[in-house]
Amino acid sequence: MKKEAEMPDVVGKELPHLWNAMHRYHPGAQQMVAASGEGSWFTDESGNRYLDGVSGLWCLNLGHGRQEIIDAATAQMKKLTYFPLTMSHNPAVKLANKISSLLGGGYQTFFSNSGSEANETAFKIVRQYHKQTGNPDKFKIISRYRAYHGSTLGALSATAQANRRVKYDPGVPGFLHVYPPYHYRSIFGGEPEESDLKAAQLIEEMINWEGEETVAALIMEPFISGGGVIIPSMQYIQRVAEICKKYNVLLIMDEVVSGYGRTGKMFGFMHAEGVQPDIITMAKGLTSGYLPLGATAVKSNIYDVFKEEGKDNHFRHVSTYGGHPAACAVALKNIEIIENENIVERVNELGKSKLSQLHQLMEHENVGEVRQIGFLLGLEMVTDQKSKVPLEDSKMAEIVSKCKKKGLIIGRNGDTVPGQNNVIIIASPLSSTEEDLDFLVETVESVICSV
Ligand code: PLP
Predict the structure, then answer these.
(1) What's the CA-to-centroid distance between 225 and ligand 1, angstroms?
(2) CATH top-level class for 34-65+343-450?
(3) Given its phi and psi angles, is residue 312 left (phi above 0), alpha (psi -120 to 50 degrees) or beta?
(4) What is the pLDDT of residue 451?
(5) Is the dihedral of CA 85, 87, 88, 89 positive or negative?
């Protein structure tokens, strides 16, 4: 590893004033302080170089340092530094048009700053929509166990991962959780498609037991990501969409991770033919992490309910920085690059030719299942394939730490669901070079074989 920078006095110490996200206090533990980045790699303040196998927090899709994106932000800041979206500005107008066309047309977009906010916005929209369309009792929002939808209280209430929530409960009233399409450990057994369809059936049962007149919406990631990369059969997604339609339950598709090419389609739901969600939420890959931006795209027929003349029916929701001009300009440039450089096709091809080599790890007794779609990959680790007992925490930590020592950052669904935090997560930048991916695959293989 190359030494690049002088060691500042924070390295190796508890940081004096910074409270890092998810930070656990370990006296004397070495903290990573990043200094610079280039492509899919970054260098820490001690000069160690790492391949970022999780794209930051699943967001740095085009990697560090794309000059065109930086120029787009600078030019926009010079031209119009800030403007609120209580009125509008050109980059937001253009971006909303672009998002609608990427979704097939007919969507109106509300901008915010993050994935959590995009989901909060969606929850408020669905509740108000039903109130204004003669269904004032429809307020409940269903999500699936293992899903992550954000950290603010509403989004956390939709997040059905017990360990993330327990310190902050009770959550917001009206959020319900249902069994996920997790065929590897499904109580239903049988083929994946069959067990997933039974999981979908539980959603219909829940709507009936709760009373359809009380259920407003269902939120789902097409592929549960942070909760352990759970990839259902496409028939499951189609069936859930049908059930939602049948009961006038709005379908919110959380594309915060899966949007903008990560899974080999522009949006994850597009893998399931015929599915057209009522609301689609986005963040992360929308700007490739260059600036914060969240978006809630809503079908026009829903939006129409918020603009009837002479009624007090407007959406009473505002965010000072939501849809910041520079962030919208960055998103437009990011999407232009994704299109011009055929990033979605690239993800498909390299997902198949490179990342999929990790499926060979199924020969290893500790690998229970390899789940992959495009550049989203999970390795479910077990003590042995037959018992499927989750690999113990210390071994999981050892794998992550050994990869780091070899210069590769990987993720895991650590400490989210009781007893099942045994999935290694790989979500490298979509612009990773073939050499980057070779290094990633070789490192993961060698570390898993050594543990
Ligand atoms: N939805 C999903 C699927 C996510 O993975 C995340 C974050 O990881 C969020 C929402 C929340 O996004 P943010 O951290 O930008 O608030």
Answers:
(1) 10
(2) alpha beta
(3) beta
(4) 87
(5) negative
pLDDT tens digits for range 184-234: 999 999 999 999 999 999 999 999 999 999 999 999 999 999 999 999 999
Q: How is residue 91 written in tokens?
A: 């980059």
Outline where 166-249 has alpha helix (H): 192-210, 234-246
**For a pocket test of ligand 1, which of 117, 120, 123, 149 has the largest count of ligand atoms closer than 8 A to its C-beta?**
149
pTM for this model (two decimals):
0.96
Is the domain spanning 67-340 CATH 1.20.1260.10? The answer is no
CA–CA separation, 40 and 62 (whole Å)? 8
Ligand 1 atom nearest residue 226's Cα: 5
Q: Strand pairing partners for 39? A: 64
Domain residue ranges in the chain: 34-65+343-450, 67-340
Alpha-carbon separation of residue 23 from 11, 16, 109, 403 (angstroms): 16, 13, 34, 20
**Peptide bond preceding 192: is omega within 30 degrees of 0, i.e. cis?**
no
C-alpha 264/C-alpha 80 separation (Å) is: 35
Ligand 1, atom 2, residue with closest C-alpha: 149
Can you give the pLDDT at residue 285?
98
Q: How many residues does the chain have?
A: 451
159 alpha carbon – ligand 1 mean position (Å): 10
